[in-house]
Amino acid sequence: MSQIKISKGWEISGNLATPESVYMRRREFLKGTALTTLATSALLMGCTSKLPDPDAETPLSEIEKKLYPANRNEQFQLDRPLTSERIAAGYNNFYEFTEVKEDVRVHAQALPTRPWTVEVAGLVRKPKVFDIDDLLKTMPIEERLYRLRCVEAWAMAVPWTGFPLKSLLDAVEPISKATHVRMTTFYMPFTAQGQLAFWQPWPYTEGLTLAEAMNELTFMAVGIYGHPLPKQHGAPIRLVVPWKYGFKSIKSVVKIELIDSRPPTFWNTLQGLEYQFTANVDPKVPHPRWSQAKEKMIGTEEIRPTLPYNGYGEYVAQLYT
Fold it and tell me: How high is the mean pLDDT of the chain?
């Protein structure tokens, strides 16, 4: 005869117990909460060190003196005036530091950009860690004028200095199994305090198909407006894919991996319905919360019609047939 068990008042049903997987992750949660609290306390008490003046002129290294200004590739022309450098330098997305665009230029000065290396690994024959100054010496550096279109419906036109990503990938020799490229930025949560938001998938990652990465437009920028990249623009090296919305152009890259599947990426992981992996500029496909049919040029406030592929269809449309 089975025995009837009478529950005591403090007991709970087994189906209400915390799952083991959640319990085991409690330390991650507590650690993230502690880090956030510690950083906030330091800010409130004025314990953070004084940041450098973002307008101060930075002396060029001997390598950079020989590099800038780089020869311009006249293949890439603009249909609009260049955005003022002052405007472009003061209106940036870099959520690692702050969500306030106008404040990024100040907070990003905390990022140390020397020494800096970029690891290229994964499905390649010759994986290698490249020092940023070695890339400046060995890659085919040139200047290109590109349009930049943000998913938020603002735009700018800037002169980037850098080299085709294809040149870097050719140096490591991708193997036939490689189908995609995953890129990762730095992880320094006490330097870039936005990364203390432990509920977000830091560090920032982005990805392309290998065909997109090898396209002639895909550019690794190390400079802008005839000088090295300022930190708010993604120093010392960033991706530029001008036919895609700006969030695809990951800043301050530290790792490039060749893989055989589509990688998860930062914004696609957070809000997949709003930020698709492909993210090609398309005026006919609205963002869930606003139209993409028009864009506003920052600085001039000019309203222009959005161009399919941001005007670069002749170079990339064949990738999507």
Answer: 88
Distance CA 259, CA 168 (A): 16
Phi, then psi, of 184 in degrees rounded to 5: -135, 140
- Write out the two tokens for 239: 């991706």
Would the CA dihedral through 252, 258, 264, 268 be positive or negative? positive
- 33, 48, 63: which is the final residue of a domain? 48
Q: Residue written as tokens 């670069």?
A: 312
DSSP letter for each residue of 21-73: HHHHTHHHHHHHHHHHHHHHHHHHTT-SPPPPPTTSPPPPPHHHHHHSSPPB-
In 10 A of CB 69, how many CB atoms? 12
Instruction: Give the least confident one: 6-10, 221-225, 285-289, 296-300.
Output: 6-10
> Residue 262 sits in a domain of what CATH number?
3.90.420.10
- Which uninterrupted H or E stretch holds 182? strand 180-185
Nearest to 106 by CA among 56, 156, 151: 56
Q: 207 in a domain, yes or no?
A: yes
Going along 225-317, which residue ranges are E strands? Answer: 227-228, 238-240, 253-259, 294-297, 303-305
Per-residue pLDDT reduced to its tens digit, 35-65? 443 444 344 334 345 778 888 878 899 999 9
Helix (H, G, I), strand (E, B) or coil at 102: helix
Question: Is-contact 158 89, C-beta < 8 A?
Answer: no
Residue 199 structure tokens: 């509920």
How many domains, in total, are found in the chain? 2
First to last CA, the chain: 72
Q: Is residue 12 part of a domain?
A: no
Range of the domain at 78: 71-320
pLDDT tens-digit map of 222-238:
999 999 999 999 999 99
Q: Region 187-201: what's the mean pLDDT?
A: 97
Give yes or no for residue 18 having a pLDDT over 90.
Answer: no
Q: Indicate whether 30 and 94 sit together in one domain.
A: no
User: In angstroms, rounded to a whole number, what is the distance separating the alpha carbons of residues 238 and 217?
Assistant: 14
